[in-house]
């Protein structure tokens, strides 16, 4: 197993990485399409209703550290995804929000340093600053500035996921499909209740939504939440997580390309430069974290 973890990636593993990258990239664009026709909390509720129906069978005892699991399920479920779908609903373009949501990676390093006392390497600190500078530069573009509220909400959603990740680091390991099931079972009723209380026109939206919208919901609930998660689980069982996850950072590029080619996104030179700086910072943090964890493992 050790030799396999350090051997070159097989063609099947490369195909799985590419599949996950494409699925998650398409899913970001799908979120924007769905929220064009339906209220954002309704979209989240429908997505996780579909996911919960598939994943409920994986949610069974034991539930160690149940208090931490409850926090993870609440913050990583309805809070995180509610903010993400709200961000896409507020946005005119897919690209800026997608980039803002990637801040969860540097924010995870920052929160782990502040909350858990984990070491923040020089590379991670530099990447953190670069990522935020890139998002700020992108947002200050005259066109992207119109989406400043969506970018801010997307960054808040990224913060919620970063907090979830930090808490999960100190929680007894839970199989990913079981964790996804817990998130779905928490997100579905909470977002449905939120939609009932704070949104209107749900029935009309459901009646008038074109087939494409229902396809995006099936994509999010089945292909992204279930299939892609299973692929990632399979990959990290075969390889060190730090060796796989940096490749998955290509998913925002897929979203940006879809937004530009088919959804009317405007990519000015300043937006493109900001995106490149921000994603460069995110990759820097991911690679620095990988090196740090590898060093800790060897020690």
UniProtKB/TrEMBL annotation:
Domain of life of the organism encoding this protein: Bacteria
Major location category of this protein: membrane
Tagged with keyword Transmembrane: yes
Keywords of this entry: Membrane, Transmembrane, Transmembrane helix
Membrane topology: Multi-pass membrane protein
Subcellular location: Membrane
Transmembrane segments: 12-31, 37-58, 70-91, 97-116, 123-142, 148-168, 180-198, 218-237, 244-263, 269-288
Positions of the EamA domain: 14-139, 149-285
Keyword RNA-binding attached: no
Family of this protein: Belongs to the EamA transporter family.
Full protein name: O-acetylserine/cysteine efflux transporter
Organism lineage: Bacteria, Pseudomonadati, Pseudomonadota, Alphaproteobacteria, Caulobacterales
């Amino acid at each position: 197993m050790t030799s396999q973890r350090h051997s070159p990636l097989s063609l099947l593993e490369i195909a799985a990485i590419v599949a996950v990258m494409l699925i998650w990239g398409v899913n970001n664009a799908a979120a924007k399409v769905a929220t064009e026709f339906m209220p954002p909390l309704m979209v989240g509720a429908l997505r996780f209703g579909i996911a919960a129906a598939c994943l409920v069978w994986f949610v069974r005892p034991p539930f160690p550290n149940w208090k931490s699991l409850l926090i993870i399920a609440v913050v990583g479920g309805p809070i995180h995804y509610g903010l993400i779908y709200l961000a896409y609903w507020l946005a005119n373009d897919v690209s800026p929000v997608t980039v803002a949501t990637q801040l969860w990676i540097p924010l995870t390093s920052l929160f782990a340093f502040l909350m858990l006392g984990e070491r923040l390497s020089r590379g991670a600190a530099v990447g953190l600053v670069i990522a935020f500078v890139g998002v700020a530069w992108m947002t200050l573009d005259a066109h992207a500035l119109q989406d400043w509220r969506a970018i801010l909400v997307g960054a808040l959603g990224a913060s919620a996921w970063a907090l979830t990740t930090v808490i999960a680091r100190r929680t007894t390991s839970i199989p990913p499909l079981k964790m996804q099931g817990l998130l779905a079972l928490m997100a579905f009723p909470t977002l449905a209740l939120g939609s009932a209380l704070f949104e209107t026109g749900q029935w009309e939206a459901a009646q008038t939504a074109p087939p494409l919208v229902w396809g995006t919901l099936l994509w999010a609930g089945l292909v992204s939440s279930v299939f892609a998660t299973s692929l990632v689980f399979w990959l990290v069982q075969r390889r060190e997580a730090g060796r796989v996850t940096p490749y998955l950072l290509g998913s925002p590029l897929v979203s940006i390309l879809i937004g530009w080619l088919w959804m009317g996104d405007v990519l000015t030179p300043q937006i493109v430069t900001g995106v490149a700086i921000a994603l460069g910072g995110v990759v820097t943090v991911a690679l620095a974290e990988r090196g740090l964890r590898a060093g800790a493992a060897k020690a």
